[in-house]
Amino acid sequence: QLHSDQDKGDGSLKYILSGDGAGDLFIINENTGDIQATKRLDREEKPVYILRAQAINRRTGRPVEPESEFIIKIHDINDNEPMFTKDVYNASIPEMSDVGTFVVQVTATDADDPTYGNSAKVVYSILQGQPYFSVESETGIIKTALLNMDRENREQYQVVIQAKDMGGQMGGLSGTTTVNITLTDVNDNPPRFPQSTYQFRAPESTPLDSPVGRIKANDADVDENAEIEYSITEGDGYDMFGITTDKDTQEGIITVKKALDFENKNLYILKVEATNTHVDPRFLYLGPFKDSATVRIQVEDVDEPPMFSRPAYIMEVKEDVPLNSVIGTVTAQDPDAAKNPVKYSVDRHTDMDRVFNINSGNGSIFTSKPLDRETLLWHNITVIAAEINNPKQSSRVPVFIKVLDVNDNAPEFAMFYETFVCENAKAEQLIQTLSAVDKDDSYNGHQFSFSLAPEAASSSNFTLQDNRDNTAGIFTRKTRYNRHETSTYFLPVVISDNDYPIQSSTETVTIRVCACDHRGKMLSCNAEALIHPTGLSTGALIAILLCIIILLVTVVLFAALRRQRKKEPLIISKEDIRDNIVSYNDEGGGEEDTQAFDIGTLRNPEAIDDNKLRRDIVPETLFMPRRTATARDNTDVRDFINQRLKENDTDPTAPPYDSLATYAYEGNGSVAESLSSLESVTTDGDQDYDYLSDWGPRFKKLADMYGSMDSDKDS
């Protein structure tokens, strides 16, 4: 209550209030000065309120005393329970931890005033989780309370912690939280095989690195603590098999390292060991962290293809061996216990020319065609061995055949030699150096000898000197040569090698006599230059001449083809009747067919209608129809055709395109005269065919046919 000394109780003063919560939380009686709270106050929201009060004259509104300030302080009561910072805590510790190992610390706060009584004094206790864990009452630290907790027995624990104020006394408020504790794994369990012996079967045809079987050792641990490494420690198949670890399933995969052979060994016994890769030294006292098991692998027999004694064969043969000579033998056997017989053959895809063949029974390879080392040095063929009872079981082997050289090729010039000698040459003058080559091989190097052929050794105008270094020189024997007497000399040279058997050949050197200047420079040979430094070679001149000739021939042929073009008719109709013969694809109607051509006109040119226009082109009014000269009665058909051809070529009214005008002339010279019926159109009487009987047996059929026609008419 506020009261002013100036207040006489007559109601002349008025009390007013301002500050924190004035008019809202706090109100004042303006007559008596009593201050009242309108709502429940919460210290945790605002512990202190500062208010200002003043007494004023109700009539004038002027203060009668200075403004007074006072503080309202809210006293705390225990109205807030402790609150944990998290609703749920999650923690983890390794299994097998010692007692008192720190797990996690929980924290609870109380909103009450810690300076006023015990309302904010919090004490922790465990409601659930004993006897495994404990909590410190003042700090909220949770620790392990039981020794050797094993994750493999129990992995998850749920602990309930209570926080109570008032120091844990009766009447205090409390709050709880849940702590989920997980035991993490440590490597405290060794791997163990579920069985001591494993049995597997593997066909002997199992490819290398192929799996034979899987084994697995169980480990109660997880993650890296359960990782296992498998190994083969001993056994008679130590080098035949291998084992690897499947990282996903932690299984041991047994694979084949070497080829299996049922006939050689059909049972292998292995000892396999499984070991943890991550061992914790703290738990070595629990025992060795490894285990072993026995693996028995039974090899199964399969029908295998024949097996060659070698992976590849290399043979050598001389190129001059006779046909059907054996050059080598391949051997293959059936590895199975049955020992089935084997037959051999050559893969013809590798010997398309059938140079070699093989004995199907014993595998001996022999030649079937001549060999030539200079053509092909190596022959690479494939031999197939197949079981006779089961041809599908077959195998292949490469055979490399090297053709050895024999001295079967004579040496020859390294190039074509065409040289010249000057007319003013001196005796013993070198005009050409020769060299030779040989297609054959020589282990010690080629050694050629040169000499003139016997027929030219004494009478030759030149001499040959062997330089003993596989070259030879041609020298002049006399002084001065006359190209007008002899323009060309042919010098036969014999070249021999030193191999066995000795091979020799006779090569010819062409020597031309040429005119030279005083320095020995050639000017001309037989009035034409053979070699000239500033001119063209003979080969180049020949090439240029050939090009010119080909160009001229092309131009002539093109011009001839242009001139031989025929003028094509505008229309091709079955009714196109002109003074020509048109070819049809249908068969003619015989001599009774007189509609196609006016044969009488052909024989009698005077009967032609001069004013008859051509039917295959549009008539032109610029030119009047040409009037062709009439032929005499005795005009030969050849002359008539030639005349018509000439008129057709010179006719200005002819169409400007190729037109096919075909004329035929039988000719004369037949002893039997004409057999055609051209004259039958112009004659009124019947023909007498009795003369056909006089022509011999070849015309007997015609005589019978036409003779029978006459008899029919008579009857």
Automatic annotation (TrEMBL):
Pfam families linked: CADH_Y-type_LIR, Cadherin
Main localization, broad class: membrane
Localization: Cell membrane
GO MF entries: beta-catenin binding; cadherin binding; calcium ion binding
Transmembrane segments: 540-561
Source organism (scientific name): Chaetorhynchus papuensis (pygmy drongo)
Gene that encodes the chain: Cdh6
Entry membrane topology: Single-pass type I membrane protein
GO CC term (a single one): catenin complex
UniProt keyword list: Calcium, Cell adhesion, Cell membrane, Cleavage on pair of basic residues, Glycoprotein, Membrane, Metal-binding, Repeat, Signal, Transmembrane, Transmembrane helix
CDD domains associated with the record: Cadherin_repeat
Residues of the Cadherin domain: 4-84, 85-193, 194-308, 309-413, 413-523
BP GO annotations: adherens junction organization; calcium-dependent cell-cell adhesion via plasma membrane cell adhesion molecules; cell migration; cell morphogenesis; cell-cell adhesion mediated by cadherin; cell-cell junction assembly; homophilic cell adhesion via plasma membrane adhesion molecules; synaptic membrane adhesion
Summary of the function given for this chain in its UniProt record: Cadherins are calcium-dependent cell adhesion proteins. They preferentially interact with themselves in a homophilic manner in connecting cells; cadherins may thus contribute to the sorting of heterogeneous cell types.
Protein name listed in UniProt: Cadherin-6
Domain of life per record: Eukaryota
